[in-house]
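**User:**
My hope is that you can spare some time for a protein that puzzles me. This is the protein in question:
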Amino acid sequence: MKTLESDEIINKSKSERSLRKPGVYFLIKNNVIVYVGKGRLVWTRMSSHASHKNYDFDRFCVIECKTEKDAAALEAVYINKFLPKYNKTIEPIARYTEQEIQQALNRACFFDYF
């Protein structure tokens, strides 16, 4: 299974897209991923972090997913991969097969917002 590395998430960039879809987001502080989350409407979820200042971050990146199940699978994969400091619990990836995870990765679109 090929997932993105931390530096790929931080450096990859496509913008000017609507994020009113399910997705996984990465909060980044000083080029370190500090939180991984998911949202049914990922832009709405990201807006809540920005307005409430729940976590200290200076930029964020988003993977837009086709389905909420894809978002949940990718969130679990990336929490387990990066172990971000603000993620209090580790999401179990055992509930997803490697095939489900690979399909989610193949269907995902990557966006970066600052």
